[in-house]
Amino acid sequence: MDMTNWLQKRVRLSPKETALVFEGKEETFEEINQAVEILAGKLFARGIRKDQMIALLGKNDRMTFLLIHALQQLGAVTLFLNNRLTKKEIAFQLMNAEVKEVIVADSLEDKITTGIRYTELQETEYEKPELLETWDLTRVSSIMYTSGTTGKPKGVIQTYENHWWSAVSSVLNLGLTEKDSWLCAVPIFHISGLSIMMRSIIYGIPVYLEEHFDEAKITQLLESGHVSTISVVTSMLERLLKMKEGSYHPNVRTVLLGGGPASKTVLEICKQRDIPLVQSFGMTETASQIVTLPPKDALNKIGSSGKALFPAEVKIADDGEILLKGPSITPGYLNNEEATNAAFTDGWFKTGDIGYLDDDGFLFVLERRSDLIISGGENIYPTEIEHVITSYGAVKEVAVVGKPDDKWGSVPVAYVVVDEVFKEAELFGICETNLASYKIPKQIVIVDKLPKTASGKIQRNKLKERHSK
Amino acid sequence: MDMTNWLQKRVRLSPKETALVFEGKEETFEEINQAVEILAGKLFARGIRKDQMIALLGKNDRMTFLLIHALQQLGAVTLFLNNRLTKKEIAFQLMNAEVKEVIVADSLEDKITTGIRYTELQETEYEKPELLETWDLTRVSSIMYTSGTTGKPKGVIQTYENHWWSAVSSVLNLGLTEKDSWLCAVPIFHISGLSIMMRSIIYGIPVYLEEHFDEAKITQLLESGHVSTISVVTSMLERLLKMKEGSYHPNVRTVLLGGGPASKTVLEICKQRDIPLVQSFGMTETASQIVTLPPKDALNKIGSSGKALFPAEVKIADDGEILLKGPSITPGYLNNEEATNAAFTDGWFKTGDIGYLDDDGFLFVLERRSDLIISGGENIYPTEIEHVITSYGAVKEVAVVGKPDDKWGSVPVAYVVVDEVFKEAELFGICETNLASYKIPKQIVIVDKLPKTASGKIQRNKLKERHSK
Prior knowledge:
Chains A, B: Pathway: Quinol/quinone metabolism; 1,4-dihydroxy-2-naphthoate biosynthesis; 1,4-dihydroxy-2-naphthoate from chorismate: step 5/7; Quinol/quinone metabolism; menaquinone biosynthesis. Chains A, B: It catalyses: 2-succinylbenzoate + ATP + CoA = 2-succinylbenzoyl-CoA + AMP + diphosphate. Chains A, B: GO terms for molecular function: ATP binding; medium-chain fatty acid-CoA ligase activity; o-succinylbenzoate-CoA ligase activity. Chains A, B: Residues 8-334 form the AMP-dependent synthetase/ligase domain. The structure is a homodimer. Chain A is of the alpha/beta class. Chain A has two domains: 2-366, Rossmann fold; 372-468, 2-Layer Sandwich (GMP Synthetase, Chain A, domain 3). Chain A contains 14 helices and 27 strands. In chain A, strands 3-2-12-11-13-14-15-16-17 form a nine-stranded mixed beta sheet, with helices on both faces. Chain A has a six-stranded mixed beta sheet with strand order 7-6-4-5-9-10, with helices on both faces. In chain A, strands 18, 19, 20, 21 and 22 form a five-stranded antiparallel beta sheet that branches. In chain A, a hairpin with a 3-residue loop joins β25 and β26. In chain A, α1 (6-13) packs across α7 and α6 (160-174) packs across α7.
């Protein structure tokens, strides 16, 4: 289906409404669009055209925000590069995606061999570009690589249709008011951040863009009354909770939690403090959240990720894997038919996560299927053990993974970040009281910090690799 | 695109939320769905199957509400019959649409020759029906006949896609909150009413269904705090304004006005009373409102119908006709290729209405193109004259139409409903002060009432017919 160009339509609908707030400066949709048009002209002068694969390596800043829109206006496909990757990892993605050109923030230019720096682009003379008047929704909008637990990263294809339905499905659950705005302190090279930018033009609401997750600054914004919604991952939420007791400005109506389940402790604190936490489940392949708690159920269904957003569907396969269906789900992986075929079964997308639906149809995500520890034929869910371990106050962070074992196949090992009062014997005592013997970690390893992704997810696979070395 | 069955999806998402309030009785989506399934089984037992054309002749009541859903669940196409039509008019539609079966409210059975009465249906033994699991959005959902100003009525085809996009476009403009509900006192056999039912299952909000527009009852509901939104036509709004001074409960956040522009007086009263009036423009062919005032602009752009909803588009043709494009627009007229071809130009739908866009892109609807009076080469807009005439307090209602004239081609004639203090000379005085001489009605005809449609629109064509007799 051919749809009107979203940004241009938004400018016609609400030119004077705020589109972006970055470093305290507000810009309207009209102003953003003018800046985007100029950048599109400069990109055009540099030879960038419709359907070309263009990589973007930037930070959460105004220029990257504008470039994302400018590339969409030209009809280019944007490969979003994670700026925390190594030069080698980036080189793999550029090659795998057959990238035509790279646009790179000056501060990140060491990460690539060749490309157009932001300042170079700005100095380029403007040439009137050919902008898309309408958007064919089946066209590819963006590519984001995800690192599975095994094998090479795969380039997730996101169409305009995927982004559109994600935004519409979200609004049917979270609602929309005239006072809405979305605070984006998650990376815009991730779907969590990019989806906020897409919602902004579809809903006509401002993005409060933050370069870093600075909990003091974020808390200040949440208290200002200007922000209605924020997307966070667990580690961000934990930092926010430590920053300040109590709730935020009443205009904050949604704290959308993604990127993995939060501990019961964190959820209970939010409940006590009346923080409007909404848990969700989603991934790059689903163009962000696809299963989300309805705000009305947020307090009754603590620990659940909610229900599949309208019109998506969720079901659990016989082996416990969470399967999804819906129009926000990727058509597949770039240049990787094998991975695409492996990701779907009978039209359902295989998430690789294990979970269950309760009697009311609410999804509870247990863990990555690959994180499941099978010990002597028993299924052991790392999160269950982690919840027990976190209840010991001296443990600040924990991750439980399986370690190969000749007798049992695999046994649980706990990696913990602890404070000075930690005593291993006390922790084992808590485990023995709360866990069946086969679930008790065979080993507790004290570490300074746990390996995490750019978005703050614990990388269990990196811990597992230690055992295989 | 195949989408999940809307009602069933809604039941999975929010089974315990209120779906319908009729005659004070609340029913949840779960309860509604159970009743719908039983009715679908009875319809199935009566031989009603997917893709059959089934006419429905009912009132705004629970049974008609359930039947609309039941027919959708079976995948039948529903021809919505206007219950104010004559037996002869209904017979034309039944024949033209090649209807397989008619379901009729007992009180309306005299309007048809043969069909299944509601009570007969209820007495039918249930048989397990074949319900649609998924909905192909390109399928035809409903047919509604519209009477153009000339020729036979045409059956407007409404697909599921049309209804879906209408609901989504509306939410992107009006927003959605947990407290929302929609009061439906407009006929559900019209798109204004049916679209409320569709939004209800897509948004998960209650429909407050009223059999009649009883202004006392409606005012009571608007003061109750239970209703956030109501759809009205001008005559209903005028009755509401007479019923009570001041505004309603603060939970009433949208009074959506459709079915023709309101007078400046009415708009000013709403502004004074702080009534959240939102003007809109739409028709059966656009699956309800497609151009609507954003609530934020409601007070700055009095008299405007607003902007084309996301992602629809509006433009004005060289001759002043309002043209529309967007996914809620009908694919055409049933069994009437000629009318379908005539209704579109270069992919744009020709509304038959005349209007203009102001400098900010807001639409102002002037009138039906067919109502335009061309007198001695000058365009005369009846609404302009009507606004002047209404400013004379002794005039309660007015309609201006063209009358054939040998010298000028056409001249304006005013039909007025007046009270006892009316003096023709005074009215002419007002006209002479405010209107160019060629715009002054050549004749003022006092009538007891003006001819109106079921939805309260003045039927100018009926007045014009008087001159051609």
